[in-house]
Design a protein that fits this description.
This protein has 327 residues and is an alpha/beta fold. The chain has helices at residues 31-40, 57-66, 68-75, 96-108, 124-127, 130-134, 150-167, 238-251, 307-310; strands at 12-14, 17-18, 52-53, 80-83, 113-118, 141-146, 172-176, 199-202, 208-212, 215-216, 222-226, 255-259, 263-265, 277-279, 285-286, 300-304, 313-314, 317-318. The structure holds iron/sulfur cluster. Iron/sulfur cluster binds at residues 20, 22-23, 27, 30, 32-33, 87-88, 119.
Length: 327
Amino acid sequence: MTNQTKIEWTDFTVNFWEGCQKVGPGCDHCYAEARDVRFTGGSHWGPGAPRRKVKGGIAKLRKINRDAPTFHEAHSHWPRVFCSSLSDVFDNAVNPAWRAEAFREIALAENVRVQLLTKRVGNVEKMVPDSWFEAGWPAHVGLMITVVNQAEANRDIPKLLDLKARLGIPWVGLSMEPLLGPVDLKEWFGSAPYLPGASTHVGTDGFERQDIGGLILDGVDWIIVGGESGPHARPMHPDWVRSLRDQCAAAGTPFLFKQWGEWMPRDRCLPILPEDLTVWPNGKTGGGIGSANENGGPGWPSIKVGKKRAGRLLDGIEHNGFPGALA
Ligand code: SF4
């Protein structure tokens, strides 16, 4: 059996190429770029940099697909595959022939549950193959976008839900890692822009939704939240995570808490130590002293203990929600 990944929300990663360009604050400390520097000299990041084709990516996906029945027997779910963990499938600078080849293979891998994750939701419609419009978006492929703060949520979630409705994407999700500020998602759970004349139905979560031509306009199906890891990681305020947990619970949306990351919240009652960093509700960080009035409320002391020690318990509970399509 092919080696599994330790990433909590998937079983395998498959990469067809490596290389990318930073497009937002979530990319600031890109793990894949650091890896590229370490293993290949670091020449595959940026607008003019050539991307590097990964040998064996296609063969790996085919093998996971072939072995899927055995995997299902052992794990009671079909193998989840994150394509691509070291690049962005919807990167403008990649050779279009590589992307076409990747999409062909993804469409053929019907025994796996493909998790596409992008920071370029605006490119999706123009880059997916024509066959995904003509024959329909493959039922085993879901689409996720990265959302690290409220500005990205406001900008990109409407685009994601519009694509879901128009292209018939079976499930969509948000990867909120690294979470860099508080985010209010209530507007998008089980909701859609109002379309006059559309009939409606009430979902199992109690929300009213619109039916248009047999297509149900649905909300976000899955939320993954995580703090940042790596040497330059930024801390995450525990109330940001708690709020998303509670919003998901209220909407009946599966919630997976991936990790605290490099920093872990300290007990507020303990004295602030010199190595603590205070993270403020508005996303700013600094030393131990700062004004609650200026920063949206009381700051929270965090200590850098490393990803492993920080773990992934939120108020003592491990959250491992998955959408029905991946269960
Ligand atoms: S989109 Fe992903 S792979 Fe590309 S630079 Fe940003 S974090 Fe790195």
